[in-house]
Amino acid sequence: MTKPLLATLALGLATAALSSAQPIAAPGPTRAAGAFEVKMTPAGEARFTLDKSYTGDLTATATGEMLVAMTTTKGSAGYVAIEKVTGSIAGRSGTFYLQHTGTMNRGTPSLSITVVPDSGTAGLTGLTGTMDIQIAADGSHTYTFDYTLPEPG
């Protein structure tokens, strides 16, 4: 074979290999877990202020506001809340906001807690994620936080 033919063959094989290669998957979210304490203070009809302290993988304090709607049907209610979280995770510090939307439909709960897009500051710029909370029978609170944080730079 001549050199130009070998070069064409090599280029064709390389192109075929690249076009059939699987894309490299982006890393998935990281899971953080820990406990938190919350103090809810009435601030008017159906309104509360929130003061939280997170421990574990997320070390932070948070303040927020919550609105609650109760119904006359047992086990049905709703709430929304925004909290500003100030602290550190994975060795990086800053602030971010969490948005809560919760409903209880005749005893069946539905809860969404999401990082407000583009709310991260300082070392938490670019943070995205969702949080789940669990309340034990003894009233203690724990969280799992599935998040993505871009590399610094």
Automatic annotation (TrEMBL):
> Any keyword Cell wall biogenesis/degradation?
no
Which SUPFAM superfamilies does the annotation name? SO1590-like
Is Signal set as a keyword in this record? yes
Region forming the signal peptide: 1-25
The record's section on InterPro entries has:
DUF3224, SO1590-like_sf
Q: Which UniProt keywords apply?
A: Signal
Protein's recorded name: DUF3224 domain-containing protein
User: What is the organism of origin for this protein?
Assistant: Lacunisphaera limnophila
